[in-house]
Q: What sequence folds into this?
């Protein structure tokens, strides 16, 4: 058990954004985990090392089965004030001034790639499923957040690519 707090994470509005994402994905029974700089920051906090750099975006890998399911999640998040932006996997919340990337993987992908639109927009998600299997829980305040193990963070950093 950890006594980490959102305040230690030093990311403005992380708690508010995470609470909404967690609520929507949990209600829909969507497996997910935190990725990117925020996942690294949580891992470092376990060893009492403060975040080394700030970021205004929060990245989540979400396992879904269809584009319809993805659009339903987006619609749910829009009711909480999130807006779509240029990249189809990115949302922005103006009140929190936070960007959220929802990186879908699972049955929706084809050949380790997720295609969003008729326009050439691809998200390479090789390794996301494997990392989900090894994701580990981190307690922060009253919530449990799943993050990749260290080797998963390295794998995703090396393999992740968006076109």
A:
């Amino acid at each position: 058990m950890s006594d980490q707090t959102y305040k230690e994470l030093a990311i403005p509005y992380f708690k508010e954004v995470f609470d909404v994402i967690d609520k929507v994905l949990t209600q829909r029974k969507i497996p997910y985990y935190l990725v990117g700089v925020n996942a690294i920051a949580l891992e470092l906090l376990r060893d009492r090392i403060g975040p080394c750099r700030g970021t205004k975006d929060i990245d989540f890998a979400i396992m879904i089965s269809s584009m319809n399911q993805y659009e339903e999640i987006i619609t749910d998040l829009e009711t909480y004030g999130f807006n779509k932006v240029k990249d189809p996997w990115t949302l922005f919340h103006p009140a929190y001034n936070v960007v959220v990337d929802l990186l879908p993987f699972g049955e929706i992908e084809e050949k380790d790639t997720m295609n969003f639109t008729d326009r050439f927009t691809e998200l390479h998600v090789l390794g996301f499923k494997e990392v989900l299997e090894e994701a580990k829980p981190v307690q922060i305040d009253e919530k449990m957040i799943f993050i990749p193990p260290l080797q998963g963070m390295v794998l995703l950093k090396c393999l992740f690519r968006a076109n």
Summary: DSSP finds six helices and ten strands in the chain. The CA atoms of residues 19 and 59 lie 14 Å apart. The helical segments are 6-9, 14-27, 37-46, 67-78, 128-134, 150-159.
